[in-house]
Amino acid sequence: MLKSYQRMGCFPALEDVPEMVVDFVRRQVELPEGTLPAYRADRTAKHHRGLVRKRVGVTYDQARARRIVEQSIRKEAAAKNRPADLINIALEKVVEAGLELAGFSTFDKMASKIRTEVNASICAGIHDRMWGDGGDDDHVRPRPYEGQRRRAPGGAAVGDENVAAAHRAAPTQALGWSAPSRPGPRGRPGRAGRR
Question: pLDDT digit string (tens) for 129-182?
Fold first, then answer.
C-alpha cells in the first residue's frame, strides 16, 4: 500500500496495484514469483492505510477534499473548458491541502457536472443580456420604430410582445440562416437556400 500510494497518490484496489510495485515488494521481502497482493482481513488493510497516511503526511477527509475540488473547478470553469485542465487544477489544490486524493472517477464526474452548470449559467447570462426585461443591458436588443411590426420566423407578422418568444422558438431563422442548398450542376452548390 505504501509503494502504491507513493506512486499513484491514492490506494488502488489490490487487483489494480501496478505490476512494478508488486515486483518491487516481492524482491524486497524475497517472496516467490507469482505471489499476489492480498489481505486476509479488511481490518489489516484499513490499519495499513492509516499507517501509510501517517508516513506520507496526508489526511483522509473526503468531505473536505470534495469541497476543495468543487470550489477550484467552479472558479476555473468560467475560463477553462477542458475537463483535463479542471481536474489537474483540482488535484493540485487537494495535494496542497495535504489531503488524500479521491478516485479519478470522482474528479471526472465533478468536473463534468460543474462545467455543465457553469456553461449553462454563462449561456443564461448572455441570453438575459440579449433579451432583457428593460434593464440596463436592454440596449443590446434592437428596438423597432414606433408602430413597426416585425416578422417572426416563418414569416408571420407579430407585435413586439411576441417577437422574443417567436425568435427563441426558431433561432436559426431568427439569425437569417436558410436551408442547406441543393447541389447544382457538376456537384457545385446551387442557388436555392443561399441568401
Answer: 888 655 554 454 555 444 445 554 555 444 444 545 544 554 444 444 444 555
Q: Which residues pair with 151 in a beta bridge?
A: 157
DSSP code per residue over 3-42: HHHHHHSS---GGGS-HHHHHHHHHHTTPPTT-----S-H
Distance in angstroms (rounded) separating the CA atoms of residues 114 and 118: 6
DSSP state of 103: P
With bands split at pLDDT 50, 70 and 90, how would you rate the model's confidence at 71?
A: very high
- Spatial separation of the C-alpha atoms in residues 62 and 22, rounded to whole Å: 27
Residue 152 grid coordinates: 417572426
DSSP assigned state of 70: H
Q: 77 in the Ramachandran plot: left (φ > 0), alpha (ψ -120 to 50) or beta?
A: alpha
Residue with cell 473526503: 62
Of the pLDDT bands very low, low, confident and very high (cuts 50, 70, 90), residue 22 is: confident
User: Which ranges in the chain belong to alpha helices (H)?
Assistant: 2-8, 19-28, 42-56, 62-77, 83-96, 104-130, 160-169, 171-174
Q: Report phi then psi at 158, rounded to 5.
A: -135, 160
Q: How far apart are CA 62 and CA 130, in angstroms?
A: 42
Write down the residue that cell numbers 488493510 correspond to.
Answer: 45
- What's the average model confidence in pLDDT over 111-131? 88
